[in-house]
Amino acid sequence: MISCTVLINLLLIAFICVFIVDISGAIDSLKSAIKWVITKGVMKDSNYTLKPFDCSLCCTFWASLIYLLVIGQLTIPYITCTCVICCFLGFFKSAILLLEDMLIKMIQLVYKYFIDKNI
After folding, report:
1. Distances from the Cα of 63 to the Cαs of 17, 98, 116, in angstroms?
2. Quick check: 119 pLDDT over 70?
């Protein structure tokens, strides 16, 4: 039996991974810092891969599997749910960016309304 709580947690793990890897830029900063430390300050760019940490699909897949293992629910149906969620990570990223753009536009419209009304 598939639990709603576990599915919601898997979706939240996907959201967190997409946000950290694809949107925040934290992974690029981490890769730059690692390269800077390894080369003793000579190089600091992030033009290399650090899988599974710089791939939102890999990060979500492995984090979800670890979560399922920890809660004792590492079963075929949940692994399949994880794979399906991973298939839609591009949609997650687009939806997050769309929501951000919509909120920015709403704030701009409200600001423009109040400025135009001289309030």
Report:
1. 8, 25, 49
2. no
Closest CA to 19 of 81, 96, 84: 96
- pLDDT confidence of residue 114: 83
Under the banding of pLDDT at 50, 70 and 90, the label for residue 46 is low
> Can you tell me the distance from the alpha carbon of 79 to that of 73, in angstroms, rounded to the nearest whole number?
9
In the chain, domain spans: 7-90
Residue with tokens 């591009």: 90
Is residue 11 pLDDT above 70, yes or no? yes
Q: Which residues of 7-39 are buried (b: 16+ CB within 10 A; e: fewer)?
A: eebbbebbbebbebbbeeeebeeebeeebeeee
| Structure tokens given for 44 | 């600091």
Between CA 117 and CA 71 the distance in angstroms is 56
